[in-house]
Specification:
Number of helices: 6
Number of strands: 2
Distance between the termini: 76 Å
Strand order of the largest sheet: 1-2
Shape: extended
Strand content: under 5%
Structural class: mainly alpha
Order of helices and strands: EEHHHHHH
């Protein structure tokens, strides 16, 4: 807004209207396929389970398939939230859904665990953190074997 004398001039900026389905189709074509992804057909089976956790106060702005694939990517690679590839939704959105899906019910089982079991996902082979720990353990064992790295007369 700007004021000219006593008159008020209002600038109106109109936002363009987008077709969300066309955007989602383009996003699906652009995103790389990761080994941790599941098929859309499998996701259709577990989508009602994942949607049951969310309150339906306003419509979703992200594709739940992309969010679920991002969670699978994180579980498989063990990467940090902020290092989630840019092709996925924002890490804050993925984290918010992960928090909701990971809350255990009265039987101690989370919706995420149920969805992973229903989707047939077998889990990570070995995360980056686990590989690093194996390397560190192996190096420590070799140092102990040869007597390096430990002061013995102190």
């Amino acid at each position: 807004m700007s004021f000219v004398g006593r008159k008020q001039i209002v600038y109106v900026f109109l936002e363009p209207v987008y077709d969300l389905s066309a955007i989602l189709d383009n996003m699906q074509m652009k995103r790389r396929k990761y080994a941790s992804d599941i098929s859309r057909e499998k996701f259709v089976e577990i989508e009602p389970l994942l949607c049951s956790v969310r309150r339906s106060t306003k419509p979703t702005t992200v594709d739940l398939y992309e969010v679920f694939c991002a969670v699978l990517y994180l579980l498989r690679t063990g990467c940090q939230w902020r290092f989630l590839p840019g092709e996925f939704p924002k890490w804050q959105s993925v984290y918010a859904y992960w928090r909701k899906w990971s809350e255990p019910d009265q039987h101690g089982v989370s919706v995420l665990e149920q969805a992973l079991k229903k989707s047939g996902w077998r889990g990570p082979r070995e995360t980056g953190a686990q590989r690093l720990q194996h390397v560190l353990d192996r190096g420590c064992a070799e140092r102990e074997k040869y007597g390096h790295g430990w002061p013995e007369g102190l």
